Amino acid sequence: MCQIFAGQDPADYEPETRRLRLNGLSTSIRLERSFWRILDRIAAVQGLSTPAFVSRLHAEVLEGRGEARNFTSLLRCACLIGMQLEADDDLHGPAVQHRALDKGLGLRSLQGRAPSS
Q1: Is residue 4 part of a domain?
Q2: Residue 10 needs a FRET pair 20 to 30 A away by CA distance; which of 33, 35, 57, 101 works?
Q3: Is residue 115 part of a domain?
Q4: Is the sign of the CA dihedral 96, 78, 22, 53 positive or negative?
């Protein structure tokens, strides 16, 4: 059983640093490659580049909470949510996700929450 976890390719958990802009400021974010791949998929579903998705997420966190404490951990947790959404889509089909995207709704609506008006 543990070989599923212990036997993974070390390249998957190798840290990767990407440079991007958050609120107009250039910064670096360091995450394991597996997390970057998941963020790349989430961004693609949203119709955004990964830097644009991360920047938008950061802005929404600032708007909603006033600060983005431990943003890299927030990104890792966003990956878990993204994987849960993919699993739900595999079970229930992509109809819910596509309806949300067709209405121009963001990630919040994909989590099953009503968007704020």
Answers
A1: no
A2: 57
A3: no
A4: negative
